[in-house]
Amino acid sequence: MLKYVLDIVDLLDDPDADGKRVVDYLDSLAGPDGSGARVTNVVGEYGSTDFVLVRIPGRTGRSAGGAARTLGVIGRLGGIGARPEVTGLVSDADGAAAALAAAAKLLDMRRRGDALPGDVIIGTHICPNAPTEPHDPVPFMGSPVDIATMNRHEVTGEMEAVLSVDTTKGNRIINHKGLALSPTVKEGWVLRVSEQLGELLAVVTGAPLVTYPVTTQDITPYGNGVHHINSILQPATATNAPVVGLAITSAAAVPGCQTGASHESDIASAARYAVEVAKAYGGGQLDFHDAVEFENLVNRYGPLSHLQTAGRESRESS
Fold first, then answer.
1. What is the pLDDT of residues 212-234, one digit of tens each?
2. pLDDT band for position 315 (50/70/90)?
3. In whole angstroms, what separates CA 311 from the centre of its chain?
4. Helix and strand tally (H, E) in the chain?
5. Is 223 left (phi over 0), alpha (psi -120 to 50) or beta?
6. Could you give the CA distance from residue 51 to residue 38 in angstroms, rounded to a whole number?
7. Angle at Cα 55 formed by Cα 51 and Cα 56, nearest 5°?
8. Is residue 116 predicted with pLDDT exceeding 80?
9. Residue 118 phi/psi, 5° resolution?
10. How far apart are CA 31 and CA 114, in angstroms?
11. Model pLDDT, residue 295
12. Which of 214, 266, 277, 298 sees the fewest Cβ atoms within 10 Å?
């Protein structure tokens, strides 16, 4: 996996990086039929970005008329660079690098004859000159487009579960270098950490499972005036599928707009985990949540889907 990560990082660490270059690389691995990756350029208030979406068909996946489930893998970030403010690849790029490395690996596997059971849909975006924005305790990367636009281009209705990969270093909550897993989030509910996903992460990393706390604030949409740890769980506001955040973390608070702070070995671990989750989920060997338990919760306490919306406007005190 490290080979694909190094190739992707080399592609992204360039002021002229764009979606076409990424797709050309993926096509080179996919064989004669190409990767089928789609690039959509979107212009926002603070510039533009290229969304890249690629589907890797499975042997018995939905695209082949089969019953194997479809996994979504989203590389979440504000941008891969913050030019001209800083020069080089920023820490925030790790989510895109991990998702694209997983796509490269899966396409290469399929070309060699190792197709997975289910389809895998991988989405992220490429912006080498994204803005930055203030955030406590360290500055965040901004984005040329808003979160709702990201969700429209990265989250599809075909995804039956979503693994969202994001750099999550700009905090004092996760004091661990490597990877950390979130609880499952579904339709406004923060559910328990999936034991199956946790066990698999421990196997992939060879280290004890590390999880991190998720608050109600973190799973509400951006723009509502409350603090969010970052955008890792924002896909959960745009789908009814279960969403789990795979955080690429550090032992110290690191700004998302910091260069020289990406660790290729951690990115490779995240990409390897995404591939192993895709194998097991599409093969029916693991679930992101307990469906019976979730149904019981909703029946007893009611839906929490209003947390997926912007909610009511705050009333000004008279």
1. 999 999 999 999 999 999 999 99
2. low
3. 24
4. 7, 11
5. left
6. 8
7. 140
8. yes
9. -105, 165
10. 13
11. 98
12. 298
The Cα–Cα gap between 287 and 161 comes to: 9
pTM: 0.96
Retrieve residue 133's tokens. 């924005």
* Whether the Cβ atoms of residue 259 and residue 88 lie closer than 8 Å to each other: yes
| Residue 21, burial from CB neighbour count under 10 angstroms (0-12, 13-18, 19+) | middle
Contact 37, 27 (CB under 8 A): yes
Q: Residue 231 carries which side chain, given as an amino acid letter?
A: S
pLDDT digits (tens, 9 = 90+) for 33-71: 899 999 999 999 889 999 999 999 999 999 999 999 999
258 burial via Cβ count (<10 Å: 0-12, 13-18, 19+): buried
- What whole-number distance in Å separates Cα of residue 290 and Cα of residue 174? 26
Rounded CA gap, 288 and 191, in Å?
10
Q: Of 244, 157, 150, nearest to 196 (Cα)?
A: 244
Residue 33: CA count within 13 A, CB half-sphere: 9
Contact 269, 179 (CB under 8 A): yes
